[in-house]
Amino acid sequence: MPILEIVSATAPKEINAFTKRLSAVFAEYIGKPESYCLVTFTKTDSLTFAGSDEPGFYAKVTSIGHIDNERNSKLTKAITEELQKELGIADGRGYFYFMDAPAENIGFRKDTFANIASKNF
């Protein structure tokens, strides 16, 4: 159930193609099947980072597990490179926020992942 949410005032040319590409990269680096990954991109009217309105971003990663320094560092690098390539956002123009969510706090298929996992094992 990993979720990648990106917010930027700079939008990709082809948003669906961009989020699909990010989905594959995200799945690879978060270490979970792409069939469980959710990627969103939100264009905001205004984003100021470090007192400047130059292109920037905010990215939030939520996952049940698979949140650790090594993985977060590699994922930050990979997603930042995609944002640089597609949106022209300079390195150092945004933040990532990583959240390791408890399984009981994420719902899917009319239940929580905690209950789903307990039924499948």
From TrEMBL:
Superkingdom, natural source: Eukaryota
Keywords noted in UniProt: Cytokine, Isomerase, Secreted
Enzyme class: isomerase
Positions in coiled-coil regions: none
Catalytic reaction(s) noted: 3-phenylpyruvate = enol-phenylpyruvate; L-dopachrome = 5,6-dihydroxyindole-2-carboxylate
EC number: 5.3.2.1, 5.3.3.12
This protein's record includes keyword Nucleus: no
Pfam families associated with the record: MIF (PF01187)
Main location: secreted
Xref: InterPro entries: Macrophage_inhib_fac, Tautomerase/MIF_sf
Entries under Gene3D superfamilies matching the protein: Macrophage Migration Inhibitory Factor
UniProt-annotated location(s): Secreted
GO MF term set: dopachrome isomerase activity; phenylpyruvate tautomerase activity
GO cellular component: extracellular space
Annotated PANTHER family: D-DOPACHROME DECARBOXYLASE, MACROPHAGE MIGRATION INHIBITORY FACTOR
Similarity field: Belongs to the MIF family.
Protein name: L-dopachrome isomerase
Organism: Choanephora cucurbitarum
Record gene name: MIFH
